[in-house]
Specification:
This protein has helices at about 15-25, 40-45, 70-80, 95-105, 115-130, 140-150, 180-185, 195-200, 205-215, 255-260, 290-300, 305-320, 325-340, 350-369, and strands at about 5-10, 30-35, 55, 65-70, 85, 105-110, 135, 155-160, 225, 235-240, 245-250. The chain is globular, with a radius of gyration of 20 Å. Strands 4-3-2-1-5-6-7 form a seven-stranded parallel sheet, with helices on both faces. By secondary structure, the chain is α/β, with parallel strands linked by helices. The protein binds NADP nicotinamide-adenine-dinucleotide phosphate. NADP nicotinamide-adenine-dinucleotide phosphate binds near residues 15, 37, 38, 58 and 59.
Length: about 375
């Protein structure tokens, strides 16, 4: 029986298409809504799998789509009465859509990390006040969520694992010459363009440290990062009796998506996991990955710096993809934007949007120089 109504925001993206793959295998869910930015062709292909689903496009208009324009997502959510929304859009817009989804549903399967990073405590409190729960889809946070659920005693540290990206083994001095094509070939995960580039700079891990801080209410000192090239361990928690619990699975985002949809049940949909093999876990080199230290610095500096970190990185990554800047300039631009100085407390949506806008403008001005 189909007893849960699901909307997918960002249906045409990597997370969205993986969610579609999961949902076509699960009988108990009815997909009632699908939203995307501009990829109408893929949206309609997906719609053909879910005849009852209404559709929305935010960035362009199409006669074949139910709702178009800037209110399209709210119209979709208000007319479909979802139990669950998969927030799989990329970028800062995820904050607005995650807040709206919390208003109209009971569970966010949250892949979009920018919403947590930029919204911070305001975001977490707003979702809670709506009576909605968050189940993280980001694989590391999904792992920490699962590990913490079953643990009653205090957690000393959490470890987020990182693949180190496609160019992990290139000498640091050569990083300035790597091309977008080279960086886009991720060894473990198949992901959208921004997050793939961010994996190689570790801006992605920086965003995830911030995400973990707010999702699990953890002191940043308790959040650590280890490189784990095999991509089998997704997160670990260190307990006060000096034992460490790790969560392992295949590197397949469909697994955390299935978990987040079915929680608290577990459902086996994909191939078996073989834990045998050689594992390595090592600390990232701070010289090679300065974005990570910068993330901890931003957490200390406060709300505005975190928002600017995300905004400037989004602009700089786009510029790198378009061949306008070198790989190593992504960090330089973000650091300079942070150094401009940002307000410590940014506590409502309009103020967050304002800082995001200013962060982007300053980053773009730097590109022009
Ligand atoms: N990919 C992963 O494995 C992974 C893992 C963990 C977390 N995440 C997080 O999940 C999010 C999505 O990542 P992704 O890799 O799936 O990105 P992606 O492949 O680039 O897909 C982005 C999706 O968002 C939609 N979108 C973009 N801007 C929009 C807007 N203004 N309004 C409505 N829809 C918009 C796109 O629609 P159009 O294509 O129609 O423009 C597309 O459906 C990111 O926050 C990322 O950090 C991803």
């Amino acid at each position: 029986m189909k007893d849960k109504r699901v909307v997918i925001l960002g249906a045409t993206g990597t997370i969205g298409r993986m969610s579609v793959n999961v949902l076509t295998r699960l009988d108990q869910f009815e997909v009632v809504g699908l939203a995307a930015g501009k990829d109408v062709k893929t949206l309609l292909e997906i719609k053909s799998k879910f005849p009852l689903a209404k559709t929305a496009l935010t960035n362009i208009s199409s006669e074949d789509v139910g709702f178009c324009g800037q209110d399209a997502v709210e119209n979709l959510l208000s007319s479909t009465d979802p139990d669950i929304v998969i927030v799989g859009v990329s970028g800062f817009i995820g904050l607005k859509y995650a807040l709206l989804s919390a208003k109209y549903s009971k569970r966010l399967c949250l892949a979009n990390k920018e919403s947590v990073v930029t919204g911070g405590k305001f975001f977490i409190d707003s979702v809670k006040a709506s009576g909605c729960e968050i189940i993280p889809v980001d694989s590391e946070h999904n792992a920490i969520f699962q590990l913490m659920k079953s643990e009653k005693s205090e957690i000393s540290f959490v470890y987020l694992t990182a693949s180190g990206g496609a160019i992990r083994d290139i000498p640091t001095d050569d990083l300035k010459d790597v091309t977008p094509d080279r960086v886009l070939k991720h060894p473990v995960w198949n992901m959208g363009a921004r997050i793939t580039i961010d994996s190689s700079t570790m801006f992605n891990k920086g965003l995830e440290v911030m995400e973990a801080h707010f999702l699990f209410n953890l002191d940043p000192k308790k959040i650590r990062v280890l490189i784990h090239p095999q991509g089998k361990i997704h997160g670990m928690i260190y307990l006060k009796d000096n034992t460490v619990k790790a969560l392992m699975s295949n590197a397949d985002m469909r697994i955390p998506i299935t978990y987040a949809l079915c929680y608290p049940e577990r459902t086996a949909l994909f191939e078996e996991f073989d834990p045998a093999g050689t594992f390595s876990l090592f600390e990232p080199d701070p010289k090679r990955y300065p974005a990570l230290d910068l993330a901890y610095r931003c957490l200390k500096l406060g709300d505005g710096s975190r928002i600017a970190y995300n905004a400037a990185d989004e602009v700089a990554v786009q510029a790198f993809l378009e061949g306008k800047i070198r790989f190593t300039q992504i960090y330089d631009i973000v650091e300079k934007v942070i150094e401009k100085g940002w307000p410590k407390d940014v506590k409502d949506y309009d103020s967050i949007e304002q800082v995001d806008r200013e962060g982007r403008i300053i980053a773009m001005e730097m590109l022009d120089r």
